[in-house]
């Protein structure tokens, strides 16, 4: 019996990775070259790129157009939004997030890298490590991306000199090491010419490492969240109240981490009410267990008060709830974040009022020093914040859970996303918890 493509792919692993780098480092060209040379581009897509390139007076297809899909991106020749691409080789499946390089769109890099197991940081061989390179390395470290690839691009423009590559790789690796990046793989390449992207380069015989695609296909992937702390943020309460199901009451959501099983004792946070899982519905069928990323409906043995925004967790493995959250953040809005700023904090499916009580420090990218008590964070700044929430939140450390250890701060006046936060330390409130959910005031 022959093996089908779907059967082969079902046995491969999935790698989520993101690209980042400064403006004109060649991210979109690298992605386009990767898709083209790995035969992951449909014929009609390639024909559309060839037509668009010809209309702009280019003799050869501009492979960057395979990812730069917005009209503004094609007109300006830059990436603005995160472009997601799905492709596969016989060895692995991939979800790629091609993120913008301009400092104005650093927020998009945070979005693309937040779920990645690997981040590709491009450097123009002519320019070396620049401020935006350091910022992207800091964000990759902050988001705890386990693998970082330093892609030294445009080697053809420096005559493929080994000394140029070695100097850049040494500088970046030292900087990333100070940030705590666990692993850096440096690869010299030319996205435009195709050197070391999919096929080995004939111009850099001094390089004995893997090509870009070979590294993507073989890097270890260990994103099995099924064995992490089990967490289900409740998105919707299902009560059909029909003659067929008069007493049905289910709590629906996507499992953020871990595994839930029928008969398991659970606690609903932040209320602290307890029950036992009496049933799990998945795709219209009853199952005995469900795990990470599956969208399910949990049925509980007791009729307790559960609503959207609550978090269902195993009773023996429940996180502490707190109104005081300390975190490392990347501020992504144009308006600064200041001490005393009134915000909304969105954690999982729960959104509550909050106040920025303190900004203890801001990271200086040049030397990784901490500027104490800056008073505010400007766009793209990385720093520490202390937040007081109107209601208790069940937060995990980001090191333990990237899903339930993260949050965003929102401007309550217009809904603008202000800041992306990673919980580094949470501590119990020094005073009794005060629920101000129905209070219009903000003094808490």
Describe this structure in words.
By secondary structure, this protein is of the alpha+beta class. The chain has three domains: 5-218, Rossmann fold, CATH 3.40.50; 226-316, Translation factors (Elongation Factor Tu (Ef-tu), domain 3, Beta Barrel); 321-427, Translation factors (Elongation Factor Tu (Ef-tu), domain 3). It is 18% helix and 34% strand. The protein is built from eight helices and 25 strands. The protein has helices at residues 5-10, 27-37, 43-55, 71-76, 106-113, 131-142, 162-179, 212-218, and strands spanning 13-21, 83-89, 92-98, 118-124, 147-153, 184-188, 232-233, 236-238, 250-254, 259-261, 265-269, 273-282, 285-287, 289-291, 295-300, 311-314, 321-331, 337-338, 342-347, 350-363, 370-372, 376-377, 382-394, 406-410, 417-427. The strands form five sheets. Strands 7, 8, 9, 11, 12, 13, 15 and 16 form an eight-stranded antiparallel β-sheet that branches. A six-stranded mixed β-sheet has the order 2-3-1-4-5-6, sandwiched between helices. It has a six-stranded antiparallel beta barrel with strand order 17-23-20-19-24-25. Helix 7 links the parallel strand 5 and strand 6. Helix 6 crosses helix 7.
